[in-house]
Each structure stands twice: as structure tokens, then as C-alpha cells.
């Protein structure tokens, strides 16, 4: 999940009938974003909703069998036998009688609600919570009309981590720079992720290599010294 992806306008999806089109290699392709990492999101619909509200759309896998006959409305009964399709989770609504997710499909605007489907929340309908993930995009490569690319670029969040041998973040200190919300593999098959929140930093470790499922998280104050094992640590979030 690394490299450049092209804009949808310059490289539109064309396999609506199930046929796989040949890869396009043209000078007319327009780079849209640079991907430098990925995030595996916990398989929990409450967590997914919070993550979406703060960070944006989530890529999910679903059982799309029930999509074949979908026309409109909230899909409350959805097959859940096997994952067989990839879609984009773009929103949700909890204000009505039936809370629902808003999902963008890739079958064109003639399908569903102009290319979208609404699916009931809280039931793992269509197996939608099984494999949620997202890409880390450090900056936009394509400026919008009348807008500089620097103004359109998503903020890159990094964490300056300083680990010290004393209890006051003064002696034997070593600094490192981590990209927030990006999964890092470590030896032994595990992984870790650092997350920035309001006035706090979460250091989460996972028993799998994909930062997937429940993790063990340690919370430290943003920009302040905190005890850490036999020494101390200071995590400082930086937004550029």
C-alpha cells in the first residue's frame, strides 16, 4: 500500500460488468496522492464511526450479495457469508429511527442511490466491520482550481519521541521521529502505532503485524514528561 495513485477522473473504473480491463499506461494519467503507509482500524462499528468522523473515509470489504438487488433505502437485511467486494465507507447517520452507514460503491451512478448504498449500523451487516483500513496520505499531488497544493494538503502528523534514562526527561535522552496513525511492524510478529489526540498521545502495541483488533495502549500527555518503565518519555505531536 505504497506509491502514487491516480485521480479517478483520469483513470476511471471500467469493470462494471465484472471483466478486468487491461492496465492503462498513459502520459494523460494525473497523480492524485502519494501513499506512504496504511492503518488497520479496529473491527468495531463504534470505533469505525469515530475514526471516520475524525479522519475521513474507510476502505472496507463486504459480502455484496445483497447489493445485486438493492435500489434504495436502508438495507437492514444483508448477506454475511463471505467477503467478496471492496467499497468505501464515507459517512453515517444516527439521528433517525434506523442508524445507518453510507457506502460508496464502484458500480456507477445508475446503481443504488446514485452509486451509494445505505446499510444499517450496529449489526455487522454485509460483514462490513471485518477488515476496515485506510491509507496514510502525507500530501495532495493535485492542486484544486485557484488553490495552491500546500493549502489543499492534508496535515502530516508526526510524533517526536524522546526516551530518557532518568525520571525527568533530562539525562540519557534519545530522540526519534514517528509518523502518527501509521502501523509499524516490529520483531516477533507484532506491531505498534502512535496516535495523537487532544492533549494526549497514545502508544499502542498489537500482537499481530497489522495493528488489527484490540491493542494495549499507553497514554502520555502531549509535550510533557511522563514515567516510562525505568526512565521517562516525552511524546510531542507535530502538525506540518
From TrEMBL:
Annotated stretches, region: Disordered: 131-154
SUPFAM superfamilies: Cysteine proteinases
Gene Ontology terms describing biological process: proteolysis
Record key words, sorted: Disulfide bond
Signal peptide segment: none
Top-level taxon in the UniProt lineage: Eukaryota
Domain Peptidase C1A papain C-terminal: 1-136
One Pfam family linked to the record: Peptidase_C1
GO molecular function term, any single one: cysteine-type endopeptidase activity
Family membership noted in the UniProt record: Belongs to the peptidase C1 family.
Record protein name field: Cysteine_peptidase_B_(CPB)
